[in-house]
Design goal:
- The structure is a single chain.
- The chain is α/β, with parallel strands linked by helices and 434 residues long.
- It has 3 domains: 4-135 and 304-340, NAD(P)-binding Rossmann-like Domain (Rossmann fold), CATH 3.40.50.720; 140-300, Dihydrodipicolinate Reductase, domain 2 (2-Layer Sandwich); 347-430, Alpha-Beta Plaits (2-Layer Sandwich), CATH 3.30.70.260.
- It contains 14 helices and 18 strands.
- The protein has a 6-stranded parallel sheet with strand order 3-2-1-4-5-6, sandwiched between helices. A 6-stranded mixed sheet has the order 9-11-10-7-12-13.
- Strand 10 (245-256) and strand 11 (259-270) form a beta hairpin.
- It is elongated, with a radius of gyration of 24 Å.
């Protein structure tokens, strides 16, 4: 059986991990496939400076990605550069040249993956993207094939390892957000500009992809309600602990009578739930099916080798298809065509809330806050105040009975003008559906 040749564009962490696996695990890959998966050409900004792993054999190098997508001997192009501009040009040029594509690009697949897949169908080639979400967890394969016979009713995930590392370190050590973020940057968990991670944008792209797979709807990432973790402090974990909860950045997709409800936001979750045990830079996805019930998937969400495994596995799957000549391809989005998503505002849902205040202490504060909440038909569940030496920056918490979120947000806007507040109140949903 002839070899299948691969061209790799991008030799950063993921590209380097992919090459290492192809070199070191080449014999096992050959035994599983029945043929060789060979790296024909690699592309990077400075390819001659890269030390390629032994075991790959002769490999061409180039600075120009056009050399890869037009190479007559390349069967599959692996796009591993990221972003939505040059990466899109690479993928579209590969499709135009009838090369199958493997990508780890979550941002591009969330933004334009459905359109790119349609072009791939028209060209008679495949598009694979397992590594775009939760690199070390084969969650695409699970949703696309493993539990495809079920009807998914809810999906919850911890999909950003950087944010999860920061939150669990704040919880473990009682350190402030900025201190833990600086440490995450030193350790390589966070970028110099951490905005995509800590503001929820990275997790939002991943949720858009998983929601498309699970529910068959074309999701525009900016339609997803998104909040980051910058305002979470050690005191929030202390109060959460009193409530027997912890705090995680939760990606949620739920079918409701109104439609599909999507959000990325920090939330209180009970300590006895399985997602509460996910710590450090790990990812997890919990899925509820109407027929199969609950299932849970856990592993490393990033890193050169875990993500490289996902890339290589995709290369193997696409290589098998190329040699088998299968005319029927399974869509990477698990549906031949995606339906149009009608965004449902999260403000329509009823849920319990945690409200944390920092105030200049004086009589009548609780009464003033209670009046505003009562005007919006919102009932208090409890008031919690841990011992504090500061009367000029006194934290305390009010938990709310399940309420319409729109009313809660209106009440919070009213509260922002109160002169005893040190900062606007922090509102976190208390997740009860897990």
């Amino acid at each position: 059986m002839p070899d299948v040749n691969v061209g790799i564009v991008g030799l950063g962490n993921v590209g380097s991990g992919t090459l290492a696996i192809l070199a070191e695990n080449g014999e096992q890959i050959r035994l599983k496939l029945g043929f060789n998966l060979r790296v024909k050409i690699v592309c990077s900004r400075n390819p001659d400076a890269k030390i390629l792993p032994k075991g790959l054999g002769p490999v061409e190098r180039t600075r120009d990605w056009h050399d890869v997508v037009t190479h007559p001997d390349v069967d599959i192009v692996a796009e591993l550069v990221g972003g939505t501009t040059v990466a899109r040009e690479i993928i579209e040029a590969a499709i135009q040249n009838r090369k199958s594509v493997v990508t780890a690009n979550k941002e591009l697949m969330a933004l334009a993956g459905a359109e790119i897949w349609e072009r791939a169908i028209a060209a008679g080639i495949n598009l694979a993207m397992e590594a775009s979400v939760a690199g070390g967890i084969p969650i695409h394969a699970v949703l696309r094939e493993g539990i495809s016979g079920d009807r998914i009713t809810a999906l919850y995930g911890i999909l950003n390892g950087t944010s999860n590392y920061i939150l669990t370190e704040i919880e473990r050590r009682g350190a402030d957000f900025e201190e833990v973020l600086a440490e995450a940057q030193r350790l390589g968990y966070a970028e110099a500009d951490p905005s995509a991670d800590v503001d929820g944008e990275d997790a939002r792209s991943k949720l858009a992809i998983l929601a498309a797979l699970a529910f068959g709807e074309k999701i525009t990432p900016t339609d997803i309600f998104t909040e980051g973790i910058r305002r979470i402090s050690p005191i929030d974990f202390q109060y959460a602990d009193r409530l027997d909860h912890t705090i995680r950045l939760i990606c949620a997709a739920r079918q409701t009578p109104q439609g599909l409800l999507l959000s990325v936001r920090p939330a209180l979750i009970p300590k006895n739930t399985i997602l509460a045990s996910v710590r450090g830079a790990y990812n997890a996805v919990w899925v509820r099916g109407q027929y199969g019930g609950d299932s849970f998937y856990y592993g490393q969400g990033a890193g050169s080798l875990p993500t490289g495994v996902a890339v290589v596995s995709d290369l193997m799957r696409v290589a098998r298809e190329i040699l088998s000549g299968s005319p029927e391809r399974v869509s990477p989005f698990a549906h031949p065509r995606l339906g149009e998503y009608n965004p449902i505002p999260v403000t329509l849902q009823r849920r319990a809330f945690y409200l944390r205040f920092r105030v200049k202490d004086r009589p009548g504060i609780i009464a003033a806050l209670s009046r505003i909440l009562a005007e919006k038909n919102i009932s208090l569940e409890a008031v919690l105040q841990l011992p504090s030496d500061s009367k000029q920056d006194l934290p305390f918490v009010i938990t709310l009975e399940p309420s319409v979120e729109e009313s809660v947000q209106e009440a919070l806007r009213r509260m922002e003008g109160l002169d005893f507040l040190v900062e606007p109140p922090l509102a976190l949903p208390i997740e009860t559906a897990l």
